[in-house]
Design brief:
With about 290 residues, the protein is an alpha/beta fold. It has seven helices and eight strands; from the N terminus they run H-E-E-E-H-E-H-H-E-H-E-E-H-E-H. It has an eight-stranded mixed sheet, with helices on both faces.
Length: about 290
């Protein structure tokens, strides 16, 4: 098995080139912009027109974690989607995805999982990013998500009984772990999240395949059949485990899609798979959060 499951997310580029492209405008946790040279054609930017957007911070334990939220600007209450970032944290693409959910009629909130470490976009290569991310205990991330959940429950624009969660890459794994961690989640969409991650004392004791029976929320899994780090067999095993436990789920495999096929700022971007998967994601949340 190829340990570096990011390998086909930077096709044709060195790791240093990839990180350099991501960090082209600096190392701020506010994110990056792809400026003149997109790595994947046209990088999508969702305008804020008609939306209410804000950066902020919330308390998680004794630390204040940065968040970003977006919702329709019209007064009202909206179902909630929590967006869990990929391994690179709350950069501009993740903020843009948050705005995309807002355009679909959701209060959408994301956060920076690596703020305590100073973020990762300034690091020189993916090994350095992995060193930081791999040291963060799953328990801490679940605590941050609990804090985010508490925040949206008090939000004047949030429908507290209609909360969904989604995440990309490592965030896809956390999506599944969080759906098992709390029964407040009413729907979840995991984008190419690891299903059989490495277990490390003090960091991770279980992966999604270990806790499938603990998940109550309907699960949509969106995976690439050409993902170098997530075997198709694992995806099928996760689907079977949820079915055996009597859970509601649907796992979609895009045969020619690599890891990170939705990331429009990377060479791994596959427009057709991304468009289909996004449509399925929105339909899933509409079905389970807007009824």
């Amino acid at each position: 098995m190829i340990e570096d499951w990011l390998a086909n997310a930077y096709e044709g580029m060195s790791r240093r080139q990839f990180i350099a492209r991501m960090s082209i405008t600096g190392i701020s946790l506010a994110g990056f912009a792809m400026a003149a040279n997109s790595v994947a054609g046209e990088v999508i930017t969702t305008p804020v027109t008609g939306l209410a957007v804000a950066d902020g911070k919330i308390s998680s334990g004794d630390f204040r974690i940065p968040i970003y939220e977006a919702r329709p600007s019209a007064t009202g209450k909206y179902p909630v989607v929590l967006v869990i970032p990929e391994i690179f944290g709350m950069h501009e693409h993740i903020k843009d995805v948050t705005r995309r959910f807002a355009r679909e009629g959701f209060l959408s909130v994301t956060f920076e999982p690596y703020a305590r470490e100073g973020g990762v976009l300034h690091l020189p290569d993916i090994e350095s990013v992995r060193k930081v991310a791999d040291s963060v205990p799953d328990e801490r991330v679940m605590g941050d998500l609990d804090a985010l959940m508490a925040y949206v429950k008090q939000h004047p624009a949030g429908q507290v009984d209609r909360i969904g969660v989604t995440g990309f890459c490592r965030g896809g794994m956390y999506t599944l772990l969080f759906a098992a961690h709390t029964h407040v989640v009413k729907a979840a969409v995991a984008w190419y999240g690891q299903l059989r991650p490495a277990k490390t004392p003090g960091v991770r004791t279980a992966g999604p395949l270990d806790i499938a029976a603990q998940i109550d929320a309907p699960i949509l899994g969106l995976y690439g059949g050409a993902d170098l780090g997530i075997p198709v067999a694992d995806v099928k095993e996760m689907a079977a485990a949820l079915k055996a436990a009597g859970k509601t789920s649907d796992f979609v495999l895009y045969p020619r899609a690599p890891h990170a096929f939705y990331a429009d700022y990377r060479p791994s971007f596959r427009p057709e798979a991304a468009q289909d998967a996004w449509g399925r994601c929105i339909a899933w949340f509409n079905k389970y959060l807007k009824v």
